[in-house]
Structures are given as C-alpha cells and as structure tokens.
Amino acid sequence: MHGRADMARFLLDGGAYVNFVTRTRGMTPLHLACQNERLTVVKILLQSRDCDVDIQDSRGNTALHYACYTNNARLVELLLKCSPVLDIKNSDGKTPLDEAEEKLALSIVRLLKADKVTPILPWEETNYEV
After folding, report:
1. CATH of span 2-114
2. Any idea of the CA torsion for 13, 51, 33, 96, to the nearest 10 degrees?
3. Each residue of 109-118: pLDDT tens digit?
4. What is the domain partition of the chain in residue ranges?
5. How far is 21 from 10, CA to CA, in rounded Å?
6. pTM for the full model?
C-alpha cells in the first residue's frame, strides 16, 4: 500500500491531473482508491485542492457511493470532511445513504444522517416579509 501512496504523491507532485477520468468506466483516481479501500491514497488525493469529490462515473457513482458500498466508515469520514453532495443518485437511483442502508452499514448511516444539514431556502421560498 505504501508503494501506491508514494506513487500517487509522486504523480500529483509532478503535475498529474487529480480528476483524470478513465475512458471505459469514467472513474477518477478517487473513485478507484475508494473502491479498493486505499485510505492513504484517498488522503493524498483529497489534499490536492483541485480534487472533486462529486464527480460521477459512467454509472453515476461518486467516491462516497464507493466508500459506502465497501462499508468503510473511515473513508466516509474523510470524504465528509470535503462537504460532498449527499443526495447524488447513481444510475440505479441510489444515493450513498441508500447504499449504506442496503449494506446494513449502521455506523455509516449514522455518519451520513448526522452530516445532513437542512438546506437554507432561497428568499422567495420563505414566508418572511421585510
């Protein structure tokens, strides 16, 4: 695992594009690292200021979908620090929360529900008058 982390750091330090998308499945390095549960690589990728945690692959999955699918709470915690959009649905119509619930990943379900924030309604959708 250290070799992969070292290679990721080497490539990013050399100017590699952190959001590179594969041709076949539209996956980014972050998708692949989450899918393969490479925690150290995920940390390195997230340190890049350009890393986009909300990119969807060809099946509509984000990195958070993969972290939930693998039932890896540590990955989910890391991704939540980057304020991902929690209600993105994949091509099966599932959000990351749906994936976690389907896997009976209760610790992840709690993390995701705790991270949900009530959205602020735009002015025209409120009942307040000035």
Report:
1. 1.25.40.20
2. 170
3. 999 999 764 4
4. 2-114
5. 19
6. 0.83
